[in-house]
Amino acid sequence: MVGTELAMKESWGSTCHGAGRVLSRSKANKVARGRELEKELEEKGIFILTKGRRTIAEEMPEAYKDINEVVGIVEKAGLSRKVAKLRPLGVIKG
């Protein structure tokens, strides 16, 4: 996404920098119980190296809002416009 002139006036040049969470970290851990998240993500081409399973659950894709919907709203509001779509390959948490 790239900002627009309107964004400078309306939001001090700010726009979304991610989709935003739909599930809290604790709720994501509850939802993930009994699932093979490592396998699910690997099947999507996302590879994981982690110290613990809890981190994986906290960052699973369904813990976040639909990025296409978020981008569409920001673009419709005139704050940003799409320039590229990236596919996640991994998550680094520290």
TrEMBL record:
EC number: 6.5.1.8
Keywords: GTP-binding, Ligase, Manganese, Metal-binding, Nucleotide-binding
EC primary class: ligase
GO MF annotation terms: GTP binding; metal ion binding; RNA ligase (ATP) activity; RNA ligase (GTP) activity
Pfam families with a match to the protein in the record: RtcB
Required co-factors: Mn(2+)
Record protein name field: 3'-phosphate/5'-hydroxy nucleic acid ligase
